[in-house]
Amino acid sequence: MAERTIQAQEVITCDLCTKPTINFCNSCQVSLCADCINKHVEKFDSLPHDIVPFKDRNVAFPECEFHTNQRCGAYCQQCDVSICLKCILGPHNGHKVKNMPESFNNRKREIEKETKEIELTIIPQYEKKSKETESKLSITRAECDELETEKEKQRKIWHQEVDTIFNTLGSLIKSMKENNLDALKSYQSKINNSIPDMIQTLHQNKIIMKSKKVSEVTNYKSKLAEYKNMPIDIDVELPSLKTNTVQGREISLELGEYKACLTQTTLSSLTEEVSNLSLQNLLDQAKSITTISTGVNPLYNVAYVGVDEAWVSGKDKTISRVDIQGSVRDTVTTTCIWPADITVTRQGELVYSDGDSRTVNIVRHKGTETLITTPLGWKPDRLCSTKSGDILVSMFTTDYSQNKIVRYQGHTVKQEIDRDEDGEPIYKGGEESLHVVENNNEDICASDANDYTVVVVNKSGRVRFRYDGTPARRKELFNPTHIVTDSMSQIIVADLNDACLHILDQNGQFLRCVDNCGLDKPRGLSVDSEERLWVGLLYSGEVKVIQYMK
User: Fold this and answer.
1) What is the rounded CA–CA span in Å between residue 313 and residue 543?
2) pLDDT tens digits, residue range 191-249?
3) Distances, alpha carbon 59 to alpha carbons 23, 40, 72, in Å
4) How far is CA 333 from each of CA 151, 310, 467, rounded to the nearest angstrom?
5) What's the pLDDT at 246?
6) Which residues sit opposite 51 in a β-bridge?
7) Distance (Å, rounded) from C-alpha 543 to C-alpha 524?
8) CA 348/CA 176 separation, integer angstroms
9) Section 437-451 average pLDDT
10) Pick from 343, 448, 322, 342: which is nearest to 387 by CA?
11) Could you tell me the end-to-end alpha-carbon distance of the chain, in angstroms, rounded to an integer?
């Protein structure tokens, strides 16, 4: 029996799965089973596909670079190049090679795998990173804008601090100038007034010397000693402006490694000069010039309006304007139960607050207009019309738990003062009013009767000092009510319990008490253009006009 040799043929599988190959895509050089033909075409639907039976495949082997008219039927794995039969027998003899279809298919699978990884993994990662970077760009822009805003805010604060220093120096120099010039003028006036008298005496003496009358000579009274006693000369000494590095308040900025500091030094000599000048201008004993009977009882508020007149109000709807003789010059009938406070603008217009309606109103052309309406839950209380035309309004919550001061420019809130740098309340909550006034250096001074203190903040709302009445050494507990300031930037506070007025300099240094003018329960307080105080007395309904400065 003839021996039969059976040669097993290698089964060629589909490039997309493990099933036997039936077809071949000449366009893509891919072996395909029956099930994978549609998958392949759909996956690469943008490309043309020449699908033929596997036996009719047309494998496009590349031409050999080294042997003319030879096709590369194999791939040298060692040299990583396509080679022909002559190459296998020649320079690549003994190298590990693969036939071209297998190498082709393997390389296509590698490309496909790489393509999938780029499409499904790497590109999404890049897109995600791009979105993350866009978010960082947005955050960085916003943070830089915030830095720019904060920089401008700090620029204003630094400028305000510098302005405060030089405003203080300006007030001091102005006061020294006025006081020294007044002293020199007074001395000059004494000297000049003596000269005509001496000339007259000289003329009379010459007549006597020529006279033959014994009586004229014997009755002669010598004025020589008087004339020799010249008024003591005045030595005017002005302090020099000194720079110093005494520890004071410091404002600092840091941005990365950059740091800048501005220190405001408090010169003790400067404080002493201000206090000494203020004391020189205060009378040793204040004088009550007149007492005005207003007929308003109880009397709550007094607001000087000019030409020896003041608006007064109490526990009724009427606000009256009385003159220094006690005559009623005008009346305004409000719509509230009684006005919480009254003030006068720089144009002379009357402004009053109505807590129940939450409004601040202005009287114009014999009518009343609403100037400000406070937020829900807040009632307006005490008022101050500033030199810039703004209105300062102290207000409290309906449960009396909070107090604050708000600056209005027209209807617009320009500033709120309620918390310090540590976030703590500046003013204490309670049922007592928070009286408010602006000083010449734009400090905002408030008498906080709930805390028995006077609180002074600078124009940016930063606390400068507190005064609790201790230096005055009064018998009763300090109970501050109305508060005003004068042209010397002195702060005058009515003390309801001790029947007196406390006078402080602009830095909070206690100067003197006015306690000798019968100030029984001082409540209303205002200062006129002649540096006189108009003090309202709560229960008598009287207004005392007091001279307290020279």
Assistant:
1) 12
2) 898 899 889 989 989 988 888 888 888 888 888 888 888 887 777 777 766 554 434 45
3) 13, 18, 11
4) 49, 16, 37
5) 36
6) 25
7) 8
8) 31
9) 92
10) 343
11) 153
The amino acid sitting at 326 is: G
CA distance 192 to 183: 14
- Give the lowest-confidence range in 49-58, 265-274, 276-285, 294-303: 265-274
Please provide the DSSP assignment of 314-336 as one string. Answer: ESSSEEEEEETTS-EEEEEE-SS
| Max CA pair span of the chain | 200
Q: 281: which strand partners?
A: none
**Encoding tokens for residue 539?**
């229960």
Q: Taking each helix axis from N to C terminus, what angle separates 268-281 and 123-210, rounded to the nearest 10 degrees?
A: 50
The CATH classification of domain 272-549, taken from the options 2.120.10.30, 1.10.260.40, 2.40.128.90, 1.20.1510.10 = 2.120.10.30
**CA-closest candidate to residue 299, choices 483, 542, 532:** 542
Which helix (H) or strand (E) is 364 found in, with range?
Answer: strand 359-364
Residue 200 neighbours by CB under 8 Å, 6+ apart: none
Quote the CA–CA distance of 216 and 222 in Å, as a whole number. Answer: 12
Tell me how far apart the alpha carbons of residues 123 and 119 are, in angstroms, rounded to a whole number. Answer: 6
The CATH code that applies to domain 23-112 is 3.30.160.60
* Owner of token pair 């309202």: 536
Domain boundaries, given as residue ranges, for the chain: 23-112, 113-266, 272-549
Query: For residue 16, what are its two tokens?
Result: 């997309």
Q: What is the 3-class SS of 223-249, one letter each residue?
A: CHHHHHCCCCCCCCCCCCCCCCCCCCE
pLDDT band at 271 (very low <50, low <70, confident <90, very high): low
